[in-house]
Amino acid sequence: MPPWSRPEPFGAWVRLDDRTLVAVDHALAARLGVPAGEPADAARPPRPLEVHLAVNARCHAPCADCYLDARPDGAEPSLGELRQRLASVRELGASTVAFGGGEPLLRDDLGELARYARSLGLVPVMTTSGFGLKEERADELRAFAQINVSHDGVGGAYAAVRGFDGARAAERAIEILARAGIAVGVNLVLTRRSVEQLEATAERVADLGAGELQLLRYKPQGRAAGLVYFEARLSSAQREALWPAITAVVHRRRLSVRIDCALVPLLSESLVAEPNAAELLASLGVFGCEAGRHLGGLDVAGREAPCSFSPSSTEEIDHFRAYHASPPEPCASCALFPVCRGGCQVVSRHASNTFSPDPECPRVQRHRAEASA
């Protein structure tokens, strides 16, 4: 029997280790000792494989674009409340729980929470700014399968994105975690300024001991939900150059690269010449919006959300599922839709106040231009 499994109509999800989750058919599931899944039922909502858990809304960093608008006096649930929420994540059938904030490191009981998640059969991971992390604190964090440190770029890019220079604090945290033997990744938010330093930043964090680079799309949420978003988002030329830059980082074989689900539509034009582009992306583990499906969230008040960047309510989750089930054109007939799933609805609603195809997708832009001609 594998360490974690979840029966499904197709067979089962099986976790082989902290980093490997695979889908298996009925025959292999039976050989592994996984009970048979229930028959497919269109009325039964999907269950998340990963849940993002906000452990506080406190943070001392003055990031100009904080998606949560976290503050030093932000809310912080009790240890008991978070233990109950971790138990509910287990009941949902999730495999991974991602701790976020605010700034999780402001909690003294962070290691205890990670160990409790492990006791429930969950794999805990975390994202942090790295501020205040010291060598002695790292030992308390060994229950985490991976800790990602936010670093928005070398050459002044960090300060340009966040409004202050926290690059050295982030780099010191990467070094501390790597020396402690904790798997460490780096979250890089791609903006008009930081994307120009993508390859240089990748080299720098690899030198510091990071093993993974997660590329995140800049989203109009929290403090970034204004005109500043349109000034900071990637230009058309930068979107076109993004896939070649990602490929260059991958080919150096120093870092594994993860691509934020919201980035997929921005890559669509670069992949148009690729045969079977959807299959290629799926084989690389690149998927579009999973909000309300394989991804879920619990905000700082314990309310369910489809993802960390969306409002918390069951109605919101239902809206995501309805859009994914029946998207409008050009998404409905796009070969990439099974992977892309219509793009980022946080971006769409910032632009149009409704669920709609991602307005920054080049294919969507071309479709709308042709329709209005």
UniProtKB/TrEMBL annotation:
Q: Which domain of life is it from?
A: Bacteria
Q: Which Pfam families match?
A: Radical_SAM
* InterPro entries according to UniProt: Aldolase_TIM, PqqE-like, Radical_SAM_PqqE_MftC-like, rSAM, rSAM_sf
A GO term, aspect molecular function = metal ion binding
Query: What UniProt keywords are attached to this protein's entry?
Result: 4Fe-4S, Iron, Iron-sulfur, Metal-binding, S-adenosyl-L-methionine
Cofactor entry: [4Fe-4S] cluster
Ranges that cross the membrane: none
Return the annotated region ranges for Disordered: 354-373
Q: Where is the composition biased (Basic and acidic residues)?
A: 360-373
SUPFAM superfamilies in the record, alphabetically? Radical SAM enzymes (SSF102114)
Key word S-adenosyl-L-methionine present: yes
Which residue intervals define the domain Radical SAM core in the entry?
A: 43-258
- Protein name, as recorded: Radical SAM protein
